[in-house]
C-alpha cells in the first residue's frame, strides 16, 4: 500500500513538474521575444547611424566643391590684379604721351610767334627800303635838275655829289640788311616746314600707339567676358548639383520618417516586454514557493543524486566559462562607453570652433555692409575707374573670407562624420556582443534539455530550478544594463543631432546676410529652428519631432544655398554693366 501511495505521489509530482516545465518554456519564449525586439531596435539604431554616415559623406563632397571654388576665386583675383596693373601702365603711358603733345604744341606756338615777329620786321624793312628808293629817285631828280642848271658853280656840284655818295652807301647798307633778312626768313620757313613734318610724324606715331592700346583693351575685355561666362556656367552647374542634393535630402527625409515610426513601435514593444517581464517575475516567485513545498520529498531521490553530481560539476564548469565570456563582454561595453566620452569631448571642441567662426562671420558681415555702402556711393558719384576697381577688389576679398568660413564649417561637419563612424563601429561591436549572447542562450537551452532528462531526481530538479531562477535574474539584469546602454546611445544621438542643428542654424545665419528681404525670411526660419531645438530636449519621449526639426533646418539651409548662386550671378552682371 505504501508503495502504491508513493507511486501515486510520484505520478502527481511528475505531472506538476510537467506543468512547471511548460510554464518555464512559455517564460523562455517570452524572454526570447523580448530579446528579438531589443535586437530589432538595435538594428534600427544601426541603420540610422548608417544614414547619418551617408549624410556626412554628402557634406564632405560639398566641402570639397567649395574648396575648388575658392581656389578658382583666388586665380580670378590674381588675374584681376594683373589686369589692374596693365591698366595702370596704359594710363601712365597715355599721361606721358599727353605731356609730349603739350610740349610739341608749345614749341609749335613759340615758333609760329617768332615767324610772325620776323614777318612784321620784314614788312617794316620793305617799307624802309621803299622809302629809301623814293628818296633816291627824288635825289636823282634833283641831280638832273641841278645838272640842267648851268648857272651853279662847282661847289654846289661837289656838295651834291657828297650827298649822293652818302645816299648810295646807305642804300647799299639797306640792301645788305634786306638780303640778310630774306635769308633769315628762308631759314625760318625751312624750320617751319621741318616742324610741321615732325608734328605730322608725331601724330601718326601717337595714332598708332592709340590703336595698339585700343586693341589691347579690346583683347582684355574679351578675355574678361569669356572668364565671366565660364564662371556663370560653373555657377549654373553648382546650382544644378545643389538641386540634386536637395532631392536626395528629400528622399532621406522620407526614410528618416519611416525610421522614426519604426523606433516608436520598437519602444512600445519594449515597454510591453517590460510589463510581461514583471508578470513573469511574479510567476517565478509563486513557482519558488511551490518548489519549497516540494523539498519535503527530498529523501526519495537520494540514490539518484550521487549519479548526477558528476554532471553537475561539468555544468558548473560551463557556467564559469559563460561567466568569463560575460565579463569580457562587460569590459568591451565599458571601453565603448569611454570611447563615447572622448567623442563627446571632441564635439565640445567643435562647438568652440563654431563659436569662433560665428564671431568672424559677424565681422565679415559688417565689413561687407560697409563695402556695399561705399559701392552705392561710388555708383551715384562720378569716380575714377581705379577707385571702383579697388572697391571691387575689397568686396572680392570679403566674399573669399566668407567662402573660407563656409569651408571651415564643412571641415567641422567632416569631423562630425568621423565621430559618427566611431558610433557605427560601436554598434557593430554591440552586434557582436548580441551574437555572443545568442550563443549563451543556446548553451542555456542545452542545460534546459539536461534538466528535462533529470525529472526523476526531485532535489536535483529543485537545485536546477534555483539555478534557472538565478540565471533569469542575471538575464534580467543584463537586459536592464543593455537598456541603460541603449539610453546612453540615444542621448549621444540626441546631442549629435543638436550639434548638427546648431551647425545648420549657423549656416543659415551666414547665408541670411545677403539682402534685407532674405534676412527677414531667414529670421523666420531661424525662429522655427530654435523652437525645434527646444523640442529636441524631449527626444527620448518624442524622437520623431526632433528628427523633423533637424530636417527642417537642413531644408532651410538648402534653400539659402540655392539663393546664393543667383546673387553671385547678379553681382557679376552688375560688374559687367559698370
Automatic annotation (TrEMBL):
List membrane-spanning regions.
Answer: none
Q: Which UniProt keywords apply?
A: Coiled coil
Name residues in a coiled coil. 3-145, 174-381, 444-506
For this chain's UniProt record, which GO biological process terms are given?
actomyosin structure organization
Q: Name one GO molecular function term.
A: actin filament binding
Specify the domain of life of the species encoding this protein.
Eukaryota
Question: In the UniProt record, which is one GO cellular component term?
Answer: cytoplasm
Q: Where is the composition biased (Polar residues)?
A: 512-525
What this protein is called in its record is Unconventional myosin-XVIIIb
Organism lineage reads as: Eukaryota, Metazoa, Chordata, Craniata, Vertebrata
Q: Gene encoding this chain?
A: LOC102729991
Amino acid at each position: 500500500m505504501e508503495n502504491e501511495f508513493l507511486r501515486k505521489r510520484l505520478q502527481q509530482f511528475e505531472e506538476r513538474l510537467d506543468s512547471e516545465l511548460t510554464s518555464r518554456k512559455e517564460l523562455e519564449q517570452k524572454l526570447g521575444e523580448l530579446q528579438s525586439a531589443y535586437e530589432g531596435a538595435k538594428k534600427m539604431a544601426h541603420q540610422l547611424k548608417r544614414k547619418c554616415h551617408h549624410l556626412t559623406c554628402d557634406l564632405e563632397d560639398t566641402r570639397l566643391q567649395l574648396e575648388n571654388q575658392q581656389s578658382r576665386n583666388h586665380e580670378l583675383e590674381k588675374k584681376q590684379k594683373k589686369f589692374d596693373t596693365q591698366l595702370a601702365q596704359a594710363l601712365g603711358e597715355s599721361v606721358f604721351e599727353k605731356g609730349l603733345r603739350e610740349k610739341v604744341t608749345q614749341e609749335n606756338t613759340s615758333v609760329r610767334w617768332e615767324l610772325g615777329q620776323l614777318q612784321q620786321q620784314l614788312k617794316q624793312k620793305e617799307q624802309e627800303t621803299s622809302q629809301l628808293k623814293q628818296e633816291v629817285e627824288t635825289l636823282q631828280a634833283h641831280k638832273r635838275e641841278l645838272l640842267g642848271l648851268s648857272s651853279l658853280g662847282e661847289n654846289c656840284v661837289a656838295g651834291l655829289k657828297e650827298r649822293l655818295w652818302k645816299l648810295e652807301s646807305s642804300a647799299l647798307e639797306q640792301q645788305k640788311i634786306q638780303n640778310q633778312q630774306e635769308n633769315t626768313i628762308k631759314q625760318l620757313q625751312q624750320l617751319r616746314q621741318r616742324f610741321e613734318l615732325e608734328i605730322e610724324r608725331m601724330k601718326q606715331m601717337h595714332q598708332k600707339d592709340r590703336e595698339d592700346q585700343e586693341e589691347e583693351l579690346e583683347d582684355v575685355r574679351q578675355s574678361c567676358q569669356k572668364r565671366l561666362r565660364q564662371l556663370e556656367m560653373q555657377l549654373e552647374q553648382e546650382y544644378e548639383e545643389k538641386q540634386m542634393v536637395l532631392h536626395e535630402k528629400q528622399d532621406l527625409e522620407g526614410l528618416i520618417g519611416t525610421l522614426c515610426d519604426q523606433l516608436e513601435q520598437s519602444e512600445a514593444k519594449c515597454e510591453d516586454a517590460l510589463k510581461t517581464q514583471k508578470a513573469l517575475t511574479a510567476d517565478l516567485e509563486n513557482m519558488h514557493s511551490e518548489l519549497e513545498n516540494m523539498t519535503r520529498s527530498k529523501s526519495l531521490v537520494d540514490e539518484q543524486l550521487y549519479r548526477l553530481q558528476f554532471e553537475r560539476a561539468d555544468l558548473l564548469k560551463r557556467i564559469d566559462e559563460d561567466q568569463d565570456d560575460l565579463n569580457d563582454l562587460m569590459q568591451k561595453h565599458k571601453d565603448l562607453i569611454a570611447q563615447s566620452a572622448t567623442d563627446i569631448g571632441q564635439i565640445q571642441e567643435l562647438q568652440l570652433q563654431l563659436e569662433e567662426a560665428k564671431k568672424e562671420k559677424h565681422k565679415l558681415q559688417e565689413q561687407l555692409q560697409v563695402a556695399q555702402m561705399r559701392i552705392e556711393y561710388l555708383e551715384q558719384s562720378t569716380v575714377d575707374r581705379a577707385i571702383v576697381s579697388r572697391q571691387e577688389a575689397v568686396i572680392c576679398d570679403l566674399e573669399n573670407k566668407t567662402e573660407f568660413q563656409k569651408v571651415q564649417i564643412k571641415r567641422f561637419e567632416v569631423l562630425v562624420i568621423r565621430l559618427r563612424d566611431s558610433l557605427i563601429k560601436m554598434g557593430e561591436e554591440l552586434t557582436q556582443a548580441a551574437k555572443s549572447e545568442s550563443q549563451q542562450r543556446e548553451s542555456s537551452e542545452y542545460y534546459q534539455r539536461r534538466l528535462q532528462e533529470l525529472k526523476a531526481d526531485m532535489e536535483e530538479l529543485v537545485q536546477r530550478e534555483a539555478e534557472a531562477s538565478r540565471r533569469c535574474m542575471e538575464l534580467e539584469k543584463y537586459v536592464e544594463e543593455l537598456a541603460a546602454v541603449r539610453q546612453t546611445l540615444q542621448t549621444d544621438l540626441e546631442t549629435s543631432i543638436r550639434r548638427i542643428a546648431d551647425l545648420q542654424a549657423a549656416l543659415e545665419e551666414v547665408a541670411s546676410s545677403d539682402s534685407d528681404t532674405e534676412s527677414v525670411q531667414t529670421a523666420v526660419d531661424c525662429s522655427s529652428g530654435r523652437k525645434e531645438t527646444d523640442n529636441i530636449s524631449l527626444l527620448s519621449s518624442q524622437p520623431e519631432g526632433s528628427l523633423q526639426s533637424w530636417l527642417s533646418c537642413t531644408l532651410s539651409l538648402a534653400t539659402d544655398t540655392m539663393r546664393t548662386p543667383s546673387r553671385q550671378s547678379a553681382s557679376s552682371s552688375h560688374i559687367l554693366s559698370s
